[in-house]
Amino acid sequence: MNNDFSYYLRKFLSEYLPREKGFNSNTIDSYRYSFILLLNYLKDVGIKAEKVKIIDLTKDRIVDFLNYLENNRNNSISTRNSRLAAIHSFFKYLQYEYPDYIDEYTKILNIPFKKAKTKQMSYLTVEEMIKLIGVIDKSNKYGYRDYMIILLMYESAIRVSELINVRLIDFRFSKPYSIKIVGKGNKQRYVPLSEQFIEKVQEYVLSLNNKKLETDFLFTNHSNNKLTRAGVSHILNKYVIIAKKNNPSLFKENVTPHTLRHTKAMHLLQDDVNLIYIRDILGHSSIQTTEIYARADSARLRQAIEKSYKELSTETKCEWQEEEIINWLKSF
């Protein structure tokens, strides 16, 4: 089959991932973009997109592509691994759908993920969060929208990919107040919200001066279309720049939409909310994932150590004199 790659890639993205694997549109879009990058790379090495065949995708070529992402496009290790995950998924699919080159598939599937250095988790203090919200001008339509976007990201610890899909119908406006969030793998979770925040959502909807259907997206851009992840990042960054300028001693870490998710989790932990509840709010499948917040909270760790300190020393002074210790160390 001359166009075997094109044929199976279409089936993989349009049928296998959404119907059999149940992946949501954001994950599929990420996989799709991974193959756009791969095709662009293949074009650079002399293989046009319409000419690509599965037999062209060897282990060595895939490794070269991954190195190209890291070295030429300056992608992070995390991004490199995400592209490899998409490629792995495709070749696992081919093992059963088109096993003609199964030996090469196995080699590709054995390409390991690259280990990245563990980054220290960044999050905002309560003071920084207040300063950030405080620089937003709510007197105009888009400033008010931006205020609600940033507030919702913090209040619900929602991922940016989940935020852009939020609709009015996802909110429960009667007690117990909550928001339904559709996360990775189309998994749903319900995050409790305060009455004060629900009132802010209702006030925001009324301010729009148009009839917003329950199925409409809560946040839209200037063209009244759904926001993109890049658009949300741009909005947040705009206010972070202003807040940094106004408060030079604060905001030392890079601030992204995911930083607000970390921030909410850390603030809940510092308020002694059980890790199990924090796990459910974040939508983690395992408590081990949530435990990173407990490990990252150095202040709580220090307090715990100070609280548990036991006085083990005695009043008896060491018989060694300072000179004797120095001499001993030198001769040791």
Q: What characteristics describe this protein?
A:
single chain; 332 residues; mainly alpha; DNA polymerase, domain 1; 2 domains
CATH architecture field of the largest domain: Orthogonal Bundle
Shape: globular
* Spatial order of the strands forming the largest sheet: 1-2-3
Number of helices: 15
The proportion of strand residues reads under 5%
Q: What is the highest CATH level, the class of the largest domain?
A: Mainly Alpha
- DSSP summary, beta strand count: 3
* Total domain count: 2
- Quick one: biggest sheet? 3 strands, antiparallel
The helix fraction, in percent, is 55-70%
Structural Rg:
26 Å
**Mean pLDDT across all amino acids:** 87
The CATH topology of the largest domain is hpI Integrase, Chain A
Distance between the termini: 75 Å
CATH homologous superfamily of the largest domain - what is it?
Answer: Intergrase catalytic core
Structural class: mainly alpha
Low-confidence stretches: none
Helix-strand string:
HHHHHHHHEEEHHHHHHH
Structure commentary:
With 332 residues, this protein is mainly alpha-helical. The protein folds into two domains: 4-109, DNA polymerase, domain 1, CATH 1.10.150; 126-305, Intergrase catalytic core (hpI Integrase, Chain A, Orthogonal Bundle), CATH 1.10.443. It is built from 15 helices and three strands. The protein has helices at 4-20, 25-44, 59-71, 77-97, 102-109, 126-134, 141-156, 160-163, 195-207, 229-246, 257-270, 275-282, 287-296, 298-307, 322-331; strands spanning 171-172, 178-182, 188-192. The protein has a three-stranded antiparallel beta sheet with strand order 1-2-3. The longest helix has 21 residues, at 77-97. It is globular and about 60 Å long. The model has no long low-confidence stretch (mean pLDDT 87).
